[in-house]
Specification:
- By secondary structure, the protein is an alpha/beta fold.
- It folds into three domains: 63 residues, no CATH class; 166 residues, Vaccinia Virus protein VP39 (Rossmann fold, 3-Layer(aba) Sandwich); 59 residues, no CATH class.
- The protein is built from twelve helices and twelve strands.
- The strands form two sheets. A seven-stranded mixed β-sheet has the order 7-6-5-8-9-12-11. Strands 1-2-3-4-10 form a five-stranded antiparallel β-sheet.
- A hairpin with a 6-residue loop joins strand 3 and strand 4.
- The radius of gyration is 20 Å and the shape is globular.
Length: 317
């Protein structure tokens, strides 16, 4: 059904309700990873909407995790350092010696450690814990938001990197305008976000693609709309190949999704229904078996090629 509420990206006034969840359903999924999640979930019901105009999906209420949430996650090395973040390698072809690089949502400054060229690097990060760890490593990471940073750094940067950040926001306009402001004319804006055209779109109960971690679900269509609205040209779009760290969950999700579609069952981001539990249990039991490897896995590998992220490179007009 339509609701009188504006889209976060294009301001279209009638977004469509796709799913709704009870707060406790969402909290239960998070408890083993973040026991204090109820502090972040303020209302009893969470809605997922899609805009029919720009195709953006977003959650309401806008339940973004705060400093405490990300500092808690940041205590775990895997959160910032886990393998399979292909955007760090991808962006190297656009970086040249002498460039001024802005890394928004820099975490512990891992991007700088990957850059081989001699550059001027600035990282922005809101997590107190991540900034502390970056400074202990001697990296130039500041606890500052991009709106404030842009006021003193207009047309300053050659490349702005925004890796796994855009999906965490609760408002877009001032954020994206500020990024445009910081770039030199012709400067590059490189974005990596979870690909909600890929396997995560049919992987239920995937906590890290749900509030209070992710608040917006991006696709190539919504990213292209965003580029046009904020005066960028699209230079390149890259869907990463499936990485080892995601391989098992992607393969299992693919098989479960084929069964679900064959039975005409709904695709839900949170799914505690018995039919889904039965499907998952059966797929888990078959996975890795001799017959599965011989007859099913070749088909799965050919169909499930792409990984978790999509990377889009934009050029400031």
């Amino acid at each position: 059904m339509a609701r009188e509420m504006k889209c976060l990206l294009c301001d279209f006034e009638k977004v469509v309700l796709k799913e709704k969840y009870d707060r406790e359903e969402l909290a239960h999924l998070w408890l083993s990873t973040y026991p204090n999640v109820r502090d972040e979930l303020k209302l009893d019901e969470i809605h997922l909407y899609q805009c029919p105009n720009c195709k953006l999906k977003f959650f309401d209420p806008r339940l973004a995790g705060g400093d405490r949430f990300y500092s808690e996650l940041g205590k775990e090395d895997w959160y910032y350092l886990h393998p399979g973040k292909t955007e760090y390698d991808y962006v190297q072809k656009y970086i040249q010696s002498g460039n001024k690089i802005l890394d928004i949502g820099a975490g512990r400054g891992v991007l700088f450690t990957k850059i081989k060229a001699n550059v001027e690097y600035t990282g922005l990060e809101l997590s107190t814990k991540a900034v502390q760890l970056a400074k202990e490593s001697g990296l130039n990471v500041k606890q500052e938001d991009v709106v404030k940073h842009a006021q003193d750094n207009r047309s300053h940067y050659d490349v702005v990197c925004l890796f796994q950040v855009l999906e965490h926001l609760t408002q877009l306009d001032s954020f994206l305008k500020s990024i445009h402001l910081t770039l030199k004319d012709g400067g590059l804006f490189v974005i990596a976000v979870p690909d909600n055209d890929g396997f995560i779109s049919y992987t239920p109960n995937y906590t890290f693609n749900l509030p209070p971690h992710h608040t917006i679900l991006w696709t190539e269509a919504s990213l292209r709309y965003m580029a046009k609205k904020y005066n960028f040209d699209v230079t390149e779009v890259e869907r990463e190949l499936l990485q080892d760290v995601h391989r098992e969950v992607a393969y299992k999700s693919y098989v479960a999704n084929v069964i679900r579609r064959f039975l005409f069952l709904p695709n839900l981001l949170i799914n505690n229904n018995n039919w889904y539990k039965n499907i998952s249990h059966r797929v888990h039991g078959l996975y890795g078996g001799r017959k599965f490897e011989r007859f099913i896995m070749p088909i799965v590998r050919s169909k499930q090629k792409y990984g978790q992220s999509i990377i889009i490179t934009l050029r400031k007009k």
